[in-house]
Fold this sequence. Notes:
Blueprint: H1 15-28, H2 36-49, E1 54-57, H3 60-70, E2 78-81, H4 88-95, E3 99-102, E4 125-131, H5 140-150, E5 153-157, E6 165-166, E7 169-170, E8 177-181, E9 194-197, H6 203-210, E10 215-217, E11 220-221, H7 232-241, H8 245-263, E12 269-270, E13 278-279, E14 286-289, H9 297-306, H10 337-342, E15 346-348, H11 357-368
Parallel strand pairs: 2-3, 2-4, 4-5, 5-8
Antiparallel strand pairs: 1-9, 6-7, 6-13, 8-9, 10-11, 12-14, 14-15
Helix pairs in contact: 1-7, 2-7, 3-4, 3-6
Bound molecules: pyridoxal-5'-phosphate (PLP).
Pyridoxal-5'-phosphate binds near residues 89 and 181.
Amino acid sequence: MDKKIFVTQPLLPELEALNEELKEIWTTKKVTNAGPKHNLLEEKLKEHLGVSNVSLCNNGTLALLIALRALSLPYGSEVITTPFTFAATPHCISWNGLKPVFCDIEPETMCINPDKIEAAITPNTSAILAVHVYGFPCNVEKIQKIADKHSLKVIYDGAHVFSTKINGVDIGNFGDITMFSFHATKLFTTIEGGCLTYQDDTLKRKIYNLRNFGIRGEEVVEDIGINGKMNELQAAVGLLNLDLYKEEQAKRKILREYYTSRLEGIKGIRIPKMPPSVTDSYQYYPIVIEDNFRVSRDELYAQLRAKNIYARKYFYPICSDYDCYKELPSASKENLPVANDLKNRVLCLPFYGSLEEEYRVKICDEILRG
Length: 370
Ligand SMILES: Cc1ncc(COP(=O)(O)O)c(C=O)c1O
């Protein structure tokens, strides 16, 4: 194929519509610091995410940094997390002066395995930071039970689950705080951006302070904050994309059905199944390459790439392989057998609504070749 097919494409509003928004911003000259578009997006996201509190941030990583900080976890304490995630997850723990402790994942959901969490708890554990991987929700009930038993905070990295519901309950309502990323690669995007959702109203003031340098008034600085503010241009893109993401999900549903119709039942390909209790976000299409497929995951990746199809080995390497974490006792391969197995098997296929018919067919033909 001449054209390069990447794993995703950003959902962008019509340029004319964005220009109208920009004209307004240029007229009011209110460009950042909780401007009108920012405040409107926060209000609207409450409805879309079905939550009582939303705090916008300039990206998901800053949001997660702030979430951990807002919960006042004791400095140097341990946070149990998963290695099967993006770098931002353990990095936010470390940047807060906390210690990531890796726990293995479940083979089907690829999320943290709740049955292995208790063994990782020590007197120094303060929280669990779990990730809803590829839109598969963590076992939120089991995680909450463990957290309650051991008085731990629960934070969810929900970068992959915008608008997901579990048994009709919006996913941003579980744990103490959930982070959503609005990066350009995500279903709902503000190009860079993110937010926190939480039920405890008292966190609102704390989070507001932390994302604005801790500044409360002209002469009052209450906290050691940071610059986590979303600007008006990001918010404008977000407001327009709120009208687009559902249609994008509908298109991705058709693409998913097509991929599944071609790839399901093929020897050596496993397609992780979304449980019927979950209303899916439609952010990724991962496949798992088993030993009895005609080639290995890496060979398939290379074969596709030679045809200009850029599928993604996501997540590879896993966080416990990084130079900065590999010496941690919890990063050992013996502690993380499932994550270490899946890192060599998962491939995320190109997944966006505007992927043309001809390329959908070619991607599947190429996978099934031979
Ligand atoms: C699981 C996960 N966590 C955190 C992030 C970081 O979000 P951001 O890029 O908005 O900072 C991402 C993606 O970018 C992600 O996929």
